[in-house]
Structure formats: structure tokens, C-alpha cells
């Protein structure tokens, strides 16, 4: 402060200028104490956009005009509308949270709001952002919102559950930023923001109806059928050792062939059916995804076919651990490359919990 005053006196040598500086400083100090450092710098006239990141803490109490970068979310307390799916009945309610709250905190708030419905540990709840395909919030009065309230799980809701899981360690601020739901798209009234799936609901459903193979659910059978069909199609292009015979190739046989380099191109009319080496057939991420899926499946089942939905689309059911947004895209690409489907849009990837509901 003294430095600023001295410079002013030396430059202008005027009583009124000096008085103005003193008054400005007092005003700035008051603004600092009430609104934060970023506003104080504005009053003195040397605030720049470069200060936004440094002043993020003080910007939480700054004037609204001080928060002008979308990448920085002001801490605020506002209601989040949650849709709780219980059996065949929907239930929409609100919980009040802060942007700094973690998802695990929201789970606790949801349990306190619905103690009769939600029993056990709140960390068992699964939360999904209710962001629609057009990038907006699910509206309560929309057709999908009304059906959800009535207990119906539409394809739109299934897609949200498959792609928009909210991790317990994330903060609300992280979720809104990552999913680009800030600014004009920030949560407001008449919207559903979070889909809640109960632990018992994740395992519910008629398991007997969903037995694709003896002792296995349709979800498990879909994974086995998918891996077997991928292995079969690769066996048409490459020659490698199959533990259970050439008519019964497994992904484990293919992984071993790739690792040891123990494979050959199959020939038809003296010509290779593909020019791509086996180890280059899939990308590194795709090979890793296949290995993970093969490790997850039951070793009792090796055969089967990829199932079809009621609309005739071929499908694969993944666990939550694998069914990330990127994971879903990877398996759609694998299905296309391996000839299971003609193009990614013809292949449906869903989540095991949702499939069994």
C-alpha cells in the first residue's frame, strides 16, 4: 500500500491524487475482506485473466461478474434431482449438495432421504448422470422422464446407465465439467440429474429366464458367445494350435499364438485371406480388452453364439468394470473388425446390472 501511495505522490505530486489513491486503497481492502482477492485486484485495475487460476479459492466468494471462465465452477449449494428406480415403480426426489461434494457424499444424502427404501451401505448404490444423447438433462415431463417415473427403463435410460457412471471419488464439479454440463447447462429445476440403481436391483430379475447356458445367466453367456465367435472368425484367417481341436478355437489359443508367434496365414487358392499379421489384427487396447473379457468369463463355457435383442441387433453384456464409454466403443470396433457385425452401429453393448434388471 505504501509503495502505491509513494509512487502516486512522486508522479503527480498532488493532494487530490494522493487522497484518491488512499480512498481507493481503503475501498479495495474492504472489497478484499468481503469478496476476495480477485475483486480487490479489479478495483486497483491490475486484474487479468491470468489471475483466474491463482485466485480460484477467493473466486468462490467473489462477485458473479468475477467468475467468467467456464472452466472454473463457483461453489454453490443447489438441489440435484435424482430418479430412484425401485422394482417397477419410479421415484423422483431432490437432495441438496455442493459442487465440492464427492459422489460418495451424494450417496449418503440419498440414503438419508430414502431410509425406508435404501438399506445397507450407501456406497453400494450406483449413480449415473442423466445426460441425454443430445447433450442436455433428462426432463421430468419428457416421454422418457414420464416412463422412468412409471418404472419403465427405456433404451435412452439404458444408454445413460451404460455410458454415464459417476465414480465415488469424483466431485460434482468434476462430473459437470467432464460431461460439459456447466454454464447454461448447469442443473436447474424440472430436470432429472442423477439415475440411482439400488444394490439389490443390480442383481434382481428372473435369472432362470436368462439362462443362455446351463448354470449361466444370459449376460455371462453373451460374453462367452461373443469371444467364441471372434475366435471362430479369426480361425478362418489364421492357422494356430487349438487345444480342443480346429473346430473349437478359443481366445486363449489365439493369445498364446500371438505371444509365441506360433501362427500362419490360411490360404485359399494359394492366396492369403488377409495381409494383416495376427498380432496386428487388433490394436493394443483392443487386445487388452479381449484379454480382460476372456479372463472375466466362466471357464466352463467355451462355445455359443452372440445373442440378439428383440429388435434383432447382436449384443454383448459387459460388467461395470469394463463398460466405460471408451470400453463400449472398443468392443463395438472389435465386433466390426472380427466380422461379428458389418458396422459398429449394428452392435449393442449394454451393462450387466441394467441387462438383468
TrEMBL record:
- Localization per record: Host cell; Secreted
Which residue spans adopt a coiled-coil conformation according to this UniProt entry?
A: none
Q: Name one GO cellular component term.
A: host cell
| Keywords, in A-Z order | Acyltransferase, Secreted, Transferase
Q: Cross-referenced InterPro entries, in alphabetical order?
A: Acyl_CoA_acyltransferase, Crinkler_N, GNAT_dom, NatB_acetyltransferase_subunit
What main location does UniProt list?
host cell
**Per its UniProt record, what Pfam families does this chain match?**
Crinkler
Domain annotation N-acetyltransferase: ranges: 1-64
PROSITE patterns registered for this protein in UniProt: GNAT
Name of the protein described by the UniProt record: N-acetyltransferase domain-containing protein
Amino acid at each position: 500500500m505504501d509503495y502505491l501511495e509513494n509512487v502516486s505522490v512522486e508522479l503527480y505530486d498532488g493532494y487530490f491524487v494522493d487522497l484518491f489513491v488512499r480512498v481507493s486503497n481503503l475501498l479495495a481492502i474492504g472489497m478484499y475482506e468481503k469478496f476476495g482477492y480477485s475483486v480487490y485486484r479489479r478495483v486497483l485495475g491490475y486484474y487479468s485473466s491470468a489471475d483466474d487460476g491463482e485466485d480460484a479459492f477467493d473466486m468462490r466468494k467473489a462477485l458473479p461478474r468475477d467468475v467468467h471462465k467456464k472452466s472454473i465452477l463457483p461453489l454453490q449449494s443447489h438441489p440435484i434431482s435424482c430418479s430412484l428406480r425401485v422394482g417397477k415403480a419410479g421415484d423422483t426426489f431432490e437432495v441438496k449438495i455442493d459442487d465440492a461434494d464427492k459422489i460418495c457424499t451424494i450417496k449418503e444424502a440419498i440414503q438419508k432421504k430414502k431410509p425406508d427404501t435404501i438399506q445397507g451401505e450407501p456406497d453400494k448404490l450406483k449413480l449415473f448422470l442423466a445426460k441425454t444423447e443430445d447433450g442436455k438433462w433428462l426432463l421430468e415431463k419428457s416421454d422418457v422422464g414420464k416412463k422412468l417415473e412409471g418404472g419403465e427403463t427405456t433404451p435412452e435410460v439404458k444408454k445413460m446407465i451404460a455410458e454415464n457412471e459417476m465414480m465415488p471419488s469424483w466431485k460434482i464439479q468434476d462430473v459437470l465439467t467432464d460431461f460439459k454440463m456447466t454454464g447454461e447447462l448447469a442443473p436447474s429445476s424440472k430436470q432429472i440429474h442423477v439415475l440411482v440403481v439400488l444394490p439389490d436391483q443390480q442383481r434382481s430379475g428372473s435369472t432362470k429366464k436368462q439362462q443362455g447356458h446351463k448354470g449361466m445367466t444370459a449376460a455371462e453367456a453373451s460374453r462367452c458367445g461373443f469371444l467364441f465367435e471372434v475366435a471362430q472368425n479369426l480361425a478362418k484367417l489364421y492357422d494356430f494350435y487349438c487345444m480342443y481341436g480346429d473346430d473349437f478355437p478359443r481366445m486363449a489359443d489365439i493369445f498364446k499364438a500371438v505371444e509365441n508367434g506360433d501362427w500362419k496365414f490360411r490360404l485359399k487358392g494359394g492366396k492369403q485371406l488377409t495381409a494383416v499379421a495376427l498380432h496386428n489384427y487388433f490394436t493394443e487396447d483392443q487386445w487388452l480388452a479381449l484379454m480382460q473379457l476372456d479372463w472375466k468369463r466362466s471357464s466352463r463355457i467355451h462355445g455359443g453364439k452372440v445373442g440378439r435383442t428383440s429388435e434383432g441387433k447382436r449384443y454383448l453384456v459387459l460388467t461395470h468394470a469394463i463398460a466405460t464409454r471408451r470400453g463400449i466403443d472398443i468392443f463395438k470396433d472389435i465386433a466390426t473388425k472380427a466380422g461379428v457385425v458389418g458396422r459398429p452401429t449394428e452392435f449393442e453393448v449394454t451393462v450387466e446390472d441394467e441387462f438383468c434388471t
